[in-house]
Amino acid sequence: MARIERIVEEIHENPGKDYPVDELAQRAALSQTGLLQRFKRLTGVPPHAFVLACRIELAKRELENTSTPIATIADQLGFPSAQHFATSFKRIVGKTPSEWRAQSVIK
Description:
With 107 residues, this protein is mainly α. It has helices spanning 2-13, 21-28, 32-43, 47-65, 70-76, 82-93, 97-106.
């Protein structure tokens, strides 16, 4: 479990990086199925969902605390496009990145 905990910590610290499941499994010395089962047992979600959640949390902080363009944030966090980022953000947060930023400015 220690190897998976290190992977979880790395994802949390650098969510913009690409994390292919086959590479994660190799690093954890597990089959892909074994990795998925243990990762989900540890975090409650599969690796892809965990990476996405970490990216969205970091994006929320960036939107609240910087004036960095949304497209730049999307790129820095590893989203294939600003539109993909906006769609994912709204699905998870319930607001668009622009709405989130505007709400944060009002506080």
